[in-house]
Input
Amino acid sequence: DVKVTQSSRYLVKRTGEKVFLECVQDMDHENMFWYRQDPGLGLRLIYFSYDVKMKEKGDIPEGYSVSREKKERFSLILESASTNQTSMYLCASSSPLSGGLYNEQFFGPGTRLTVL
Amino acid sequence: GQNIDQPTEMTATEGAIVQINCTYQTSGFNGLFWYQQHAGEAPTFLSYNVLDGLEEKGRFSSFLSRSKGYSYLLLKELQMKDSASYLCAVGPGFQKLVFGTGTRLLVSP
Output
């Protein structure tokens, strides 16, 4: 079974702090994703990565950056946390099918981040 | 642009059948997913449709009409454990997914 793990389930940080959220998957998936989930807004894509050292902006990348130095690990960085970044952060991974078709994304348990 | 619409909340009774609709307008289409998410947990995969028609998987079925930009998830013989949010997501391309805001289903005894 695919396992996607995230470094923390709950995190409390102060405004202006630099925050690292880590995600690790154990199935050798090429694709990894970071989402945030907010009530009434659903899941929104922040960044994704097709391969090591590759990254692409999603729909809401402002205020975030990412790092993928190893295939199994994808980190989300909040350079200077702000209160509007209080949210549930979900990491996911997938492996692409041929012909451009999709394979399912497997999600981690999420990190609930509170910025005070 | 990308737009995915689904009802915010639905209620149903244990043992009944419920249909959750999803309409979409996206710049590309490489398939439509349904995910289930229990409160406080991660989304889990339910179904994937890329061709028109019905896909059946036990008590759950998913239907797709690409020409109408429409899908539905059908849940039969509802159980209390089916109380969850159901997320419709479209793959416009490049392995990304665009999610709807989700439909919260409440199953009562």
